[in-house]
Every structure is written in C-alpha cells, then in structure tokens.
Amino acid sequence: MKDHDPYQKVLSRDLIKDKYEVLIIGAGFGGILTAISLRKKGFENILVVDSAGDFGGTWYWNRYPGAQCDIESYIYLPLLEEVGFIPKEKYSFGPEILEYIKLLASKYSLYKNALFHTEVNSIEFDEDRSLWNVSTNRDDLIKAQYVCSSIGLLNKPKLPGVKGLDKFSGHCFHTSRWDYSYTGGSSNGSLNKLKDKKVAIIGTGATAVQCIPHLAETSKELFVFQRTPSSIDIRGNQDTDINWIKGLDPGWHKERRDNFNILVSGGHQEKDLVNDGWTSIMKKLGAVLSDPSNIDEYKDLSSKELDELIQYADFEKMEEIRNRVDAIVEEGSTAEKLKPYYRQFCKRPCFHDQYLQAFNKKNVSLVDTNGKGIEEIDPRGVMFNGEIFEVDCIIFATGFEVGTDYSRRAECSIKGKNNITLEEKWSSGVKTLHGFQTEGFPNLFFIGQIQGGITANNTHLLTEQADHISYLIHYANKIGAKTAEITKDAENNWVEEMKNSALDNEDFLSSCTPGYYNDEGKSEINGLFSLQYGGGPVKFFETLEKWRKNKFFQDVNFK
C-alpha cells in the first residue's frame, strides 16, 4: 500500500539552494506556531518544509469522514482572540480546523516561505560555518542557521504487522490517506459508492470511533475488527453562542486554556470554564488529592489508601461508561464486547454520540478478537479465528507510530558535531534540556512531546514551546551569537530531573491493554509517557518561565 498524497497533486519545481535564518520541519500547528512566534520577533528569513501539499499537519492528512477534535475548539485553536476567529461549534470538525490553519498561515505570511511535498533526507552540522546543511528528496541543498524539528506524533501511519498485508486483491487504505474516489462522499460523510461494497475496518480507537458511523450508514456490509474496546463517553457538541463570544472579556482565551490545563492536570479551580468530558473525568479522579475541601478528611491516609480511593473513583467512572453501552446497544452479546474493562487512562478517552448506535444497524458486525488482533490478510479479505471475512475493501484505522524511536519517525539522518548522529547520541535514552535541545547539536530545536509537560490540549504545549524557542533564538541574535548549544551539565541535570519526577506508573501501564500509552503492552514501558516530564504541564510551563528569567545563560553556550 503505497504512501501518497490523495488530496493534492505533486507539482514540479526548481531545486532550492538558499540560506535561511530558521528552517522549520513540519507545517502542522507546532511548525506554524513557531514560525508565527519568530515572525513577531522580527524574523523574516524562515523556511517551512513539509511532505504534505499545504499547511495543516495531522489535519491535512486526516480527512476521514467525521474527523473531529475531542478538545474544545475555544481552547484547542490557538490565537483565536488575536485573530478574531469564531469556531462554529464547541468541538470543531476537521474541515474547519484545516481552514483555520490555512488562515493562520495566510495572516502571518507563511506561504511565501513554504516548501511543500518535500521530505528532508539529512541534516548535518557544519562546524566551520556554524550552519546546518539540509538535503531533501527533491535535491534541494539548503543552509540554515537554526533548525526546528516539528514532526509531530501523528505523522507516520502504522499498519498491523500481520501476514499477507500485501496480498489482498481488493481495495485498501489507511484512514489518514482516505480514498474518497473509492468511497464517494466527503469528510461530512455520504459515502455513496460503498452501497454495494462489503467493508472491513481494522481498529476501534479514536479515529475509527469517528468514521465508523459514516461507514455504517452507507456500506452494504461493515465488519468492525476490534482488538480492545474504546471508552466512549458523551460528546455533547453544540453550536457556538455568538452572544457568549461577544460578551467575553479580553484575555478570555488564555484564561480558559489555563483553567482547563490546571483541571485536567489534577489541580483545583473555583470554576470549570470548559466543563466537558475531560474535566469531568479529572474532577472525579483528582478530587481526592486536589480539592482543598478534602484535605482534612484525607490528610491522615497512607499513599496506599489514597490510591485505593482513586481506583474506586476510576471504577465508578468506568461503570458509567459501561452502563452507557448497555443503554444504547440493543444486542446483549455485542454490548458486552463493547464494554471497556480497564482503568480510565489506559487509553485515550473517546467521546461520541453516534458510535455505539452504529452497532444497532443490521449491516454492521462486530468482530471481537479478544485482545489478539487479526491473524492474517489473504486475497479475499481478513482472517480471524480460522474464519475468512470476504470483503471488497479494507480500511486500516490502526493509528500512528507514537512511541517509536524519534529518528524513525523523523525519517531523516540528523548529524551533529563530530559527525555524531542523533540516533547514536540517544542510543541509551533520550537526553535533552526541557525537551528542546540536546548537547552536541547546536541550534537544533525539537518541538513536540519529548521530555516536556504533556497535556490533553496539545496546542497549548506547542504554543509554550514555540514562544520558548523563539525567545532563545531572538536572544542569540540580539547578542550576535552564531550558535546556541546547551551544556552537558544542563542536559544531565534535566535527565536526572526527569528520573526524579517520573510518575510511578509502570505497574499501572503494565496492567493495561496494549496501546501507544504502554508501547503496545511490552514489558519495558517505552510508550508515550516514558518521554514525558512527570511534574505535569502546569509545573513544566512554570519551570520554563523561571528558567528564561533566571538561568538560561548558565545552561546555554552562546558563541
């Protein structure tokens, strides 16, 4: 199954042999916010490179029917107050998010400095000139003083490692490369070309939860292959109240975003401004530890007793989820298979108001693999438990490579001082300062979820990172420095802080069903959380602010 761009034709162009102040790899929110932050500090000579045909990142690729953000649009979409954009609904669908991303790129003049349908092959540091030499798959030879890598978590589609993947004689595609020429319809649904097709979808994670209702609506027959059921809570989307927007005070966007971040991090706020499924979960699970009214009641309890209270709150919430399945799904055995029997944060929670209802349709069959996954694909279809499910089309809703090695996801060679590759540098583990830089690789910055403060609202993290990186680059430029490189001591100190602050969640994750949170259930926990700062996003953002004010000149060599 060849990876390609189904949305935009690759156009021929002349190769580029230019020098830039800053090269940004990735045209998603991380790259865009970094470029915008640099623009605000006066940097004009910027180049944004991406393998896609336009700005958008994951929202460029993921245009499957029903694609929607599960974080409230009023806090997920950055710079709303500055731009004056009003989302149509509390939870924006993919087309509106992509529209907004393109609006940001236009408003801040990023299109004139963008190179699309271009993949970076290698990045090598020239110590004599203090520049990065960058080559691409289109024979470009670019020089850049600074390189910012924002490849994102959801950029490399993952396919199941099963026998016969390339043997299927019908049609197949990954959800992030949705083939509307085959299915008909659009991201809004109406997949009219499937009315005489038997379709298999493999996976029941967040993406599948959103597109399965549309497949169920039009497919002649739909087989849903489930490894582990997702937790499906109420979505409760609603149109934006324009009068509410007009009545907001200046600074509302930051206040609302911070309010959400504190609550989902287990902190306390007098008022829940977002008041959705995310904050509801954390108010239940975090109340034992974070609500000041509980201090006297629980102050004498041991850590084991507190953990038991949290587990009970977790159980109550998951019972709500399981009871919701019973209330919606009509057939008893199907309902039982759709119930998640694990703790709430073993997997990313899902929210939807049509997914469970899809299994009441006569043309929809749930194939529960009892945590095993499918066995094989042959020319006729999908095999499980010795049975062949003959289909015309297979859709892989199997996610992305999230916990895999960074160099694998970057898909390019990164070589720093003394010809040391990043893969060699991190062979015994990731080493950075605050997740942004690694010693031996001057002027190279990482954007995304590496040794930082992970939060449910990813664009909040990306905004903080973008401002931090632009601050350092601007400072170096102001003092006339050609390079900014963290010291070995600074790197070692942060690695030690990562160890000291690490959450003791290995037992918890080991008990979970396989997924990207626990590196597909492997005994050594190398999944998403292994790369995160255990102090949480609130403390992480505070740490960055204090560091910029008091310490950065001790930890960074400017030359």
Write structural notes for this entry.
This protein has 559 residues and is an alpha/beta fold. Helices cover 34% and strands 15% of the residues. The protein has 20 helices and 20 strands. The protein has helices at residues 29-40, 58-61, 73-76, 80-83, 94-107, 180-183, 206-218, 242-246, 252-264, 277-290, 295-298, 303-328, 332-337, 406-410, 422-425, 458-478, 488-501, 506-510, 536-550, 552-555, and strands spanning 19-25, 46-49, 114-115, 120-126, 131-136, 141-149, 171-174, 198-202, 221-226, 232-233, 350-351, 364-368, 376-378, 381-384, 387-390, 393-396, 413-415, 444-446, 484-486, 556-558. The model is unreliable at 289-295 and 523-529 (pLDDT under 50).
Could you outline the blueprint of secondary structure elements for this entry?
Layout: E1 19-25, H1 29-40, E2 46-49, H2 58-61, H3 73-76, H4 80-83, H5 94-107, E3 114-115, E4 120-126, E5 131-136, E6 141-149, E7 171-174, H6 180-183, E8 198-202, H7 206-218, E9 221-226, E10 232-233, H8 242-246, H9 252-264, H10 277-290, H11 295-298, H12 303-328, H13 332-337, E11 350-351, E12 364-368, E13 376-378, E14 381-384, E15 387-390, E16 393-396, H14 406-410, E17 413-415, H15 422-425, E18 444-446, H16 458-478, E19 484-486, H17 488-501, H18 506-510, H19 536-550, H20 552-555, E20 556-558
Parallel strand pairs: 1-2, 1-6, 2-3, 4-17, 6-18, 7-16, 8-9, 8-16, 9-12, 10-11
Antiparallel strand pairs: 4-5, 5-6, 13-14, 14-15, 19-20
